[in-house]
Amino acid sequence: MSTDEIVDPTIAPSDQFRRFLYHIGIPVAGVVTVIAVIAGVGWHSYQTVRTGALTLTHDLLVSQQEYIAKEVSSFLMPASAGAIVARDMLEHGAPAVEQKIFNGYSSTMMRNVPQIQSFYIADSDGNFSTLEHGEQPGQTALTTLHDVGTPKAIFTHELRDGDGKLLKQWQTPAGTYDPRGHAWFTDAVKAGQEIWTPPYLVEVTRQITITAAVPYKGSNDKTYVYAINMSLNHLNNFLNSLKIGESGNAILLQQGGNVVAGHGMQETQTKAQGDPAKMTLDPVKYPVMTKAFDEYRVHGYGARTIKVNGRRYVTITANLPVGKDSWVLLLVAPEDDFSRFAMAGGQQNLIFFVLVVIMALGFGLLLFLQARRSDGLRNLIARMRRVAGHESDALQEVAQYEELFNPEDNALILTKKLAEQSEARRAAIWRILHDGHTLMCIDSYDRLQDVHSGGFEMSTTDLKSFFDAVFHGDRLATTAADTDEHTTAFYRVYMRAFGSKSLVCCPIVGNGGPVGVITLEDAPQAEMVYHFVQMVAGVAAVRFSAQHYTAVAAAREELETEPAATEELHDPSQGFLLAPGALSINGQPNATDLSQMEGFYPAVTIMVISLSDMIMTAQNDPAANIKLIDDMAAALQDIAHQCGLYSIRMLGHRVVCIAGCSRTPDKGAVFRMANAALMMRENVLAMLSKADLDPVFRIGIDVGPVFGGMLGKNPQAFNLWGDAMGMAEMMAQGAPDVGTIQVSENVYQRLRQYFLFRERGRFFIPGMGLTRTYVLAGRR
């Protein structure tokens, strides 16, 4: 349970409530009330000004929209009305003067209405005339076509000045041109009344044009179509010249979204390569207009406000009838263009109210902090009392643990209490092994999952900065272990997999200096209970000392109870550094020995030391090589004698050691072999280091049943074979690193109370299936 969750029953709830009400509740409520009133008045004033400004903006845009609608109607009216007047004149006139009526009326209209580009007239036989502006101002160009569809079909061109005087006349081939195939003719005949064509590009002038066409019947019973072509350049210039607010724009679009005239018309036309069907709004270049048109297509005509890139815009869409169709007039202006003066006043008032609110908040905060500080100090004192009580209870539980100083007990209560008191994510106790280069986790407790684990092993090679701090007895505390120079490597190897961030380290100091370290991960209460952590560190130091002396005493007792191996002469041809214990003085078996040595041995401990060829090739001097190997063999032989092994034999690059080769299982054999393995590893490491060579050996140990017997003629050789021999060989070959001792699960089960191990995991062994293997790290 967290210390914050503990309630002191001596404190009356009514006193707590009254203190809270006087110190915090009433002052905060008063300040909040004042702030609420000021903020409400300011917000209401701002909204009132903003609403009035928006209304003003809307009214101004509506007036602009009405003005533009009238101008557009005035722009289109001459063509619409002129086509009707011309139709009546031509329909009731004599065919002989038809061309004169067309020329006179059209030239008059073209001189007085600048937006008119040209006039067309065509009949159902394909005869065609067009009147358009000439090369110079005031001039007119008349083009007529007769005999459509025959080889005689030609265009006759006449250029006249403002007084009607003929200036030039010429002819050009008509080719396959037929006015009856154009939309302005066919659509007008089909409709039987005046029509407007969609905008299209005139190739000669490169201008976007619309045509008003009206059909009629002549006195000769032919169907005629009279058409007036109007350039949209004049309408486009008019819309671009309008000033809508400071930065507003107007644009005309068809119902489908094609641009007719207005803002950005020239760029749009260039991008569409003059094709009116492709002249649409670019959402990247004109995002405001695009969004406004999308709103129109969803909600219809009317005024509305949109927001684009954090800025608010007022938009109006209106309907402009053009014949049977209609165009959409779109006006867009920033909201603050028309009402900036009003908005500025409202914003100033709002800023003033905000400043007043901030000042009131500041004074309220100071008052609140003053009250909170006094309550905080009071709560801190109460909390420290509660923590001290919990520490006392925890120490009492630890002291009452019966097996606290029993070296064979893991004393899991230590890490559990450390985690509970400091509220740590994980608490662990680490021990510095006898070699001074290895740190091993004795026990780690995960408070969230309520599980214990251990056996993790780290070396100075990987964690130099962390080891230097631990070996010097330094206290470490960091909130970001992944960036601290002393704990970065420790975080990467040990903490990152669990998601921990902060780390607190307390050294475990023995008689000769640091012997271990306590680590607390993500422990918010570590500083408050650090003296409790130091007490547990003292208990851990005593346990380490007891474990060391117990292991030494057990080793001595084991050696004293087991008969010492006797050095006997052996036959050099068998290659034994220590002859098998059952051989006679001369190395030859007698009848009795042979019968005793052959057969089944239920529990024999076998160790295999696998040496690399690097020992043989590392030096160029053969004599030096032989001397190094001879020194190693002598050292191994002495250790085998000292530990009472049954035999030791060198076979090429392997050394095979045997202990407990008897019909009755020898319980102390595996203990002697483990001691021998640690001693041999240290001696070989020292000799290789002296020779300036890296560790080039791996050690494997197993215990199990084997068969043994004498093989061959005189001199006979004693040999063992079985699963234990093969397993020891695989343990040596599969050791994780050079210079390490890998043992089987049988060895671990027999020695786990006396030695320190690190679990490697589950592995598949051919013929045996899945099994666990362990690395022997040192004595407890």
UniProtKB/TrEMBL annotation:
Any one of the GO BP annotations: intracellular signal transduction
Gene Ontology molecular function: adenylate cyclase activity; kinase activity
Protein name, entry field: Two component hybrid sensor histidine kinase and regulator
Lineage: Bacteria, Pseudomonadati, Pseudomonadota, Alphaproteobacteria, Acetobacterales
Gene3D superfamilies attached to this UniProt entry: 3.30.450.40, Nucleotide cyclase (3.30.70.1230), PAS domain (3.30.450.20)
Pfam families in the record: dCache_1, GAF, Guanylate_cyc
Organism: Komagataeibacter diospyri
A GO CC term attached to the entry: plasma membrane
Domain Guanylate cyclase: 591-732
Residue stretches spanning the membrane: 20-43, 350-369
Alphabetically ordered keywords of this record: Cell membrane, Kinase, Membrane, Transferase, Transmembrane, Transmembrane helix
Cited PANTHER family: GUANYLATE CYCLASE SOLUBLE SUBUNIT BETA-2 (PTHR45655), SOLUBLE GUANYLATE CYCLASE GCY-32-RELATED (PTHR45655:SF13)
Annotated membrane topology: Multi-pass membrane protein
InterPro entries documented for this protein: A/G_cyclase, dCache_1, GAF, GAF-like_dom_sf, Nucleotide_cyclase
Claim: Methyltransferase is one of the keywords in the record: no
CDD domains found in the cross-reference section: CHD
Subcellular location(s) of the protein: Cell membrane
